[in-house]
Amino acid sequence: MRVCIVGAGFSGAVIARMLAEKDISSLVVDERNHLAGNCHTERDSETGVMVHKYGPHIFHTGIERVWKFINQHGVMMPYVNRVKANVANKIYSLPVNLHTINQFFGEAFSPAEARAFVESKARMDIDEPQTFEEQALRFVGNDLYEAFFKGYTRKQWGCEPSELPASILKRLPLRFNYDDNYFNHPYQGMPRDGYTAIVASILDHPKIEIRLGGRHEDLTEDFAHTFYSGPLDRYFNYDLGRLGYRTLDFVPERAEGDYQGTAVINYPDESVPFTRISEHKHFAPWEADSFDKTIVFREYSRLCGPDDVPYYPIRMVAETQLLEQYEARAAQEKNVTFVGRLGTYQYLDMDVTIDRAMDVAEAYLAAYSPVEA
Length: 373
Hints:
By secondary structure, the chain is of the alpha/beta class. Helix content is 31%, strand content 21%. It comes from Novosphingobium beihaiensis.
């Protein structure tokens, strides 16, 4: 008897591959008609640009085994994510660094001078920040908070920063040098042929059957075990209510040549309805100059409805209480493991998703008995 894996994204693909290499067969089912879940990439038919269908995904990690694994299934090209921000029609560098500080305040500070200046602006009376707003005010002060964080956060999450937990700003991106690399991880890159090709390679094994465009709920076959990466509340037919998510709407625009000169520009101003514009050919700098046309996407954040693609778990008080109830039910399920962003109701980067999927596969293999299967 084989196992069932619900979801053909990174979680499901990694688990299927690791089990297949130990001679365990699986059915991977996904109700979408493509592989790779929200990491799906495809060529835009009009421009030829490799498009991240569900928004930009930049691969970065400090986990060596994850980096080795991903490189076994695709060519990772060098890529550094350098984000800009349009604030009051002026372009700044993100994350907030020495260049940003000097430009924003019209100064020419040294690193030590900038640090002292920002500390003079910071709310030192906030000893232990409890909210997103307190966290930002404690470390950057009101001016930088108002310019780069407040409006963007309101648009992204649909609520006041004072209502969000401080954990969302776990490590405030603030640097007192000119480093504008958005990430700190030692391994960073972009797949030369897109993420979908990598997931296809991971799933390319005779022990793995892929069934796209089909719902897990409609399966009639019995399985030794199910690895479920769909929405946790959906597994239980939303019996206790729906967990809250934010979703994204992407509005495309095609143009000649180069639209904005970089991959991502954030728009923190609340007067601008979208959160950012991404120009996808810049995610592949090794081929960007070969395209005569370009495609950009304006990104709008809103509350996720029943028929929308869920992106970010809200995880505020009401959701965490409901989550605990669903987690208690999930713990009682036999031969079912809940994995991935949706299955665990957590915002997970791609590398963490892969790492946890590897842990799940290893745990199953350690407990697996060929006689029982």
